[in-house]
Known about the structure:
Elements: H1 2-11, H2 20-24, E1 48-49, E2 54-57, H3 71-75, E3 81-84, E4 92-95, E5 98-99, E6 103-107, E7 110-111, E8 134-139, E9 153-158, E10 169-179, E11 184-194, E12 198-209, E13 212-213, E14 219-220, E15 224-238, E16 241-255, E17 263-279, E18 285-302, E19 314-334, E20 337-357, E21 365-388, E22 393-408, H4 422-430, E23 437-453, E24 456-467, H5 471-475, E25 477-478, E26 489-490, E27 498-511, E28 514-535, E29 543-567, E30 572-585, E31 590-591, E32 599-607, E33 612-621, E34 645-657, E35 660-667, E36 697-705
Parallel strand pairs: 6-9
Antiparallel strand pairs: 1-2, 2-8, 3-4, 4-5, 6-7, 8-9, 10-11, 10-36, 11-12, 12-15, 13-14, 15-16, 16-17, 17-18, 18-19, 19-20, 20-21, 21-22, 22-23, 23-24, 24-27, 25-26, 27-28, 28-29, 29-30, 30-31, 30-32, 32-33, 33-34, 34-35, 35-36
Amino acid sequence: MQTKLAFAACLLSTTALAAPALAQQQDTPSAPAAADVTLPAISVYAPRMSLPAESETRPQETPAPTPHSDGGDFLRSVPGVTAGRFGGHGLEPVIRGQSQNQLNITANGATTYGACPNRMDPPSSYAAIESYDRIKVVRGYQSVLNGPGAPGGAVILSHDKPELGETLTARGSAAAGYDGNGVTRSADAYVLTGTQDAYARLTLGLKDAENYEDGDGNSVRSSFSERQAGFTLGVTPGDDTHIRLSYAYHDVEDALFPGAGMDSPTAETRSYSAGLEHEFGAGIIRRIDVTTYATQVDHVMDNFSLRTRLAAPFARVPSESDTIGGSVKADLDIGGQIVQTAIDYRRNNREAIRSVGPNAGVVTRTQAFLWPDITIAELGFAAETSLTLGERTMLTTDARIDRVTVDYGRPNERAQMTGRTANDLYRAFYGVTASDQTETNVSALARLEYDLTDDTALFGSISRSVRTADATERGLANDQGLGANNSSWVGNPEIDPEKHHQVEAGILTGGTDWQVSATAYANLVDDYILRDAARGQDGILITSANADIYRNIDALLAGLELAGEWAMSDSLSLRADAAYTYGEDRDADRALPQIPPLQGALHLDWQTTEWLELGASTRFAARQTRVDTNATTATGRDVGKTGGYAVLDMRAAVTPVDGVELSAGVTNLLDATYANHLNRSNISDPTEVRVNEPGRSVFVRGRITF
């Protein structure tokens, strides 16, 4: 079975799910040695297989084959992940129909929450992808150790502990690229220097993009400018100990958003973290990992500095999102059974105030406290262990409990323009006011893995996970009036947390030169948090189809993920993946909004010689006809049905000498005009319903490693 796993780890670019029970068999005498098989000499960009529903990429070893605008754009190249477009920057990752706070996104153990109430800056938009050693994507709820909530999955970015020698050495890389559609210029650099006792790591990156054109040649407002830098200082006093201090800075300027009434002239993030890892080797505590962090996000959006505005009101929203947190993880040996435990804490404070004025020079009068100083703190305790039930069977059990506290700092402060408070909006829409809230949320998981044969593994799981509401769902106070047809957007201070009850089952099978997997899941959600139009539903006191409110419903999310890999020869490899998600509002018997259609990709990789590689990919999506667009009941989040598409990309990479790689290619070769279903409506261009994807683009990139 080891041959199958080794093959998959090198080649699989899919949603394939591998059972840990299979991995255990690698150590058994009956497992054939890896040396018995010569693997095809193909270098492909592919997630590595580990636990079920996990994919791993290593950007430092194998950079992304095609350009990406930000972390969300990169993540949608991972099987099973898609993203909603808002502009050229700030794409929102979606896994199994879930997004935003239904996913946990961490970088070296630190959590960042964006500072834009309209989500111009999801956490992935601040991730400098090229600077990380590994990026793990978890689809669905697979472990309580990935943090609180996260029923949709997790994205975990991390740096490895470097392996260095006794003498001072240095290694790194430098790269630069150009993407013709949008005139995007990018560069990044990475340097690691030190010895086996201490090291320093430095990363730098920049990207400047102009507006791109869609397949019809129409300009899409999508330009932005991005800068990032980070460094890590670490000491490794022994093979068993690693201590690090890290700092990262990320700045996005002049970002245009055709799907919004404002643009973002600036968004800055600063992240500080420290970590300690130690292997004890014996005793009750086998391993400990301690992390602490703080992130600060400052964001500004307005409706005048990056677009032409001829009349008042001129509006500006400075906002802040500050997060502190940490975790203590320990592997305990309890009677010979290893139990992984975690205590984690995170506290996020968000504040956003909109001011207006008669012209761009005078925007000083407060109009709304969008986030009235909302603080959410989560303290969690988690444990996980795996039991070997037989030669071919393993059972993993998890449990987690989270204590959530919420408080509002400025719900009674009156805006100068309206004379209203955030509490006035909460009272008008829900009949309640903001008050301190507490929750105790319990999550658990059981997963069974069974090796049917040496070539086939079966697995299944059942889980419960609880996600608390975020600051927007609890307390956004976007005051646009209280009269008929008002367009206010108001959070619900007494919204209940989501309770996800999931079942998942799958199969992984393969031979010497092929691998196939299939996974099916169903997720019954109690108290799903729905952003809806205010139509006088139960508990909603205002009827205005133009106003957005939050309420709890019962929902169903279900889906199927398929993946495969075939090494047709020593130089030719074919990979494919597809994912389908079904979303249903069980209370109203209608489609959930913003659910992706059937979609996937097909990749052909050909290594013609030791120095030349060629590749072609087709990205596709079926039509999405299950949409929430009923004239009398729609939430307003789906703008309509979305047509299907198939887009062809081609690429080539040349390695003339060791350490130098030149690559070039074409994305959207046939210049198709298309839009993803997960999309904001394009309010900047009345002729386009959605924000279209880029048309044909030629790109080049050079990279030097040393």
